């Protein structure tokens, strides 16, 4: 048998296909990094950058030299008091900021559709969640932003909560009123944490929404690899002193990050920060102009809609990040997942995301005008080829009710569980997550009691062709419950 390297070979096969990338990482096959002429040697030196904590190269967990200097420069660029390089992704930043401002048994106010890192932090920290639901745009089939009124209600009903977490911007680019939320949170002596995974680029253009630190957040975790030029898994945690225990957050970072940090990842963060400080404004001016033209052209195609700033003012949305390019096919009558499949197979275009109604492109400074010409031409061609097909169904209008939390997520995870028939699970405590997508908001989470209403509503959702994420049994004939 011939020795093979299936992972490496698979990646190389994808590269050889020559697909146009509208997905992460944000450097788009290195194109954005190569736009920095004075750092053009980065590509050639990549193998030599894989170093370790030897004299002169500093230590991520006790920085005193070049890492300390690089993090201080990042704090200046992102307008925080402290910035920490993350090599375990934004997940470890979310863990560290949540665990750094809470103690075991504390309540924390979080969005119902939080990233799984938030649930993970609650499990590790033994925290009690107080969920609030974001608004949902049923026409677009997406969960969007949250109104300050929902945050205010959650605070009023749970004055003992230690912190509030907000996801901003959303994957689809919608933004909440973080300034108003920060004022509410601080007035009630709580800490504001922002999962800003999709917003690392926001500080570098006046035409982009306000970033979390400028809006008054106490901590913000960002995935620099999503929207900037750093490598996958490289992120940053920004901290404002005053309301948080900085030393405790640093302890949690040492707890959740590897003791063998990648110098390649850290160097890519340093370069991404430098690029944004030096050239960010002009690079985003060019990109945003390209996106304006692209949206206008797409919206001339019958029954295909690429939304933009016109959605501001709807569903609690106070601003919009135009670098999230969502193209909606609800009126066209084809599922976004099928459109994405056609784009890949017939046009060599790979999107970042697809769902029932939409496809989404992640736009970054690594893109070129020709990429958007290619996508526009493909959409026109699809419009002509498939205009007679109508297969899409509406998301059912269901009145979801927040379940009763019988156990904390940590307690639920460590209790013995068993698999039973889903339709017979009324009154049992769930040991897993069930989240119809779209809109991606869980209807049941670990530790919550399953009701007959929940069972019947999920059955309706399945019958409508909506994908169910989360359960061990993907068909959801059975569900894991506490024994």
TrEMBL record:
Keywords: Decarboxylase, Lyase, Pyridoxal phosphate. It comes from the Bacteria. Its cofactor is pyridoxal 5'-phosphate. Its EC number is 4.1.1.19. It is an enzyme of class 4 (lyase). InterPro entries: Orn/Lys/Arg_deCO2ase_major_dom (IPR000310), Orn_Lys_Arg_decarboxylase-I (IPR052357), Prn/Lys/Arg_de-COase_C (IPR008286), PyrdxlP-dep_Trfase (IPR015424), PyrdxlP-dep_Trfase_major (IPR015421). Transmembrane segments: none annotated. GO terms for molecular function: arginine decarboxylase activity. Residues 221-235 form the Orn/Lys/Arg decarboxylases family 1 pyridoxal-P attachment site domain. Pfam families: OKR_DC_1 (PF01276), OKR_DC_1_C (PF03711). Signal peptide: none annotated. Belongs to the Orn/Lys/Arg decarboxylase class-I family. This is Arginine decarboxylase. It comes from Oxobacter pfennigii.
